[in-house]
Amino acid sequence: MAGQKGRDILLKISDGAGAFVTLAGIRASRIQLSAAMVDATGADSPEAWRELLAGAGARSARVAGRGVFKDSASDARMRSVFFAGDAPAWQLVLPDFGVLEGVFQITELSWSGEHDGEAEFSVTLESAGLITFEAAL
């Protein structure tokens, strides 16, 4: 597989009516999928080696990104979701890889900018429910 352009990663949010709208192109991003482990080690564990209970730990996803809003409406949508404490459906589109989709809550939101450049935002999303993945075809 050839290298992919990071600039093509998109952050989309549910419009509340079943469609997803693009909030922004992400300039820098990080996706972290985690699964907590459940230690099932007991007196009968072979030579006292730790054993883990498969599929028992809580799973989570964290998405952190930095970019430029597409327009003022997308900026307003993200702000309203943050201040309301909502956890709408989101999509993270990774070209040639696939789409992560699920409910996320914004846990951090900030804006920054240089005097001779555009305003940027930074956002951290934490999963608040089931996350699905659909591979690109």
Q: What can you see in these coordinates?
A:
The protein has 137 residues and is mainly beta. It has one domain: Roll (Pnp Oxidase, Chain A), CATH 2.30.110. 9% of the residues lie in helices and 52% in strands. The protein contains one helix and six strands, in the order E-E-E-H-E-E-E. It has one helix at residues 72-84, and strands spanning 10-14, 20-35, 59-69, 89-94, 98-113, 119-135. Strands 1-2-3-6-5-4 form a six-stranded antiparallel barrel. A hairpin with a 5-residue loop joins strand 1 and strand 2. The protein is elongated. 15% of the residues are buried.
Write the layout of secondary structure elements.
Layout: E1 10-14, E2 20-35, E3 59-69, H1 72-84, E4 89-94, E5 98-113, E6 119-135
Antiparallel strand pairs: 1-2, 1-4, 2-3, 3-6, 4-5, 5-6
